[in-house]
2-C-methyl-D-erythritol 4-phosphate cytidylyltransferase (Streptomyces poriferorum), 248 residues
Amino acid sequence: MSDQSRPCRTAAVIPAAGRGVRLGPGAPKALRALGGTPMLIHAVRAMAASRHVSLVVVVAPPDGAPEVRHLLDEHALPERTDFLVVPGGGTRQESVRLGLDALPEDVAVVLVHDAARPLVPVDTVDAVIEAVRDGAPAVVPALPLADTVKEVEPGAPGEPEPVLSTPVRARLRAVQTPQGFDRDTLMRAHEEVALSGEGATDDAGMVERLGAPVVVVPGHEEAFKVTRPLDLVLAEAVLARRRANDGF
Ligand SMILES: Nc1ccn([C@@H]2O[C@H](COP(=O)(O)OP(=O)(O)OP(=O)(O)O)[C@@H](O)[C@H]2O)c(=O)n1
Ligand SMILES: C[C@](O)(CO)[C@H](O)COP(=O)(O)O
């Protein structure tokens, strides 16, 4: 294959099909408002803010693809980026797989980014892409932990749980998204390492099971996941601070 015909585009797959049970009753989490705009639109803009990302695939709630397409059409998004919408599945792993299936052949680098991390800064996105382009098959942004972590023997809800061990905190990282991959490696992981039940909690973990190397680059405090109601309070505050700073 000549250099010119080699696949080279970078695409972002955004799983957005979750219900957001931990956030409480309401619309699917990705469609809930943050600063008056659906969380999903923030996440899409965060990916499209990278000049390297030329395609964004949004994985919508299973029965919500037309609504998501409509949302993308009615919000201002960069013209240089293409957008696709596909319906998602019952687990995050299934939703990511459905997004990967929609990628055109010329995509060589794939980011997988939670719609639930709407405020990731573009520098973090670019750092992940650069590490993949430099040759790492799988890259995760991550931060050191503030809390000490215990491994426990899970018990009944509300019952004391015996502690099994205390991992050395300095060796632990809390991982975020976007996670970046060489496309072939990620496809192979989803084909060979698909896990049943709840599936894998992140894509890099599936690549690890293949035996392929995964590296960590610095994450960002503002790339946190909106999971519980307090996270939404923090996200609103971060957004308000950004908007105030942009005003000056
Ligand atoms: N079947 C699913 C489940 C999750 N996700 C996506 O995976 C990301 C991370 O998941 P999480 O924050 O756990 O979202 P939910 O599954 O919606 O949350 P909950 O477990 O509280 O219902 C989210 O962007 C979510 O939309 C998905 O695309 N398809
Ligand atoms: C992919 C992820 O955001 C990395 O921290 C996380 O594992 C998603 O987990 P969830 O079970 O979907 O909340």
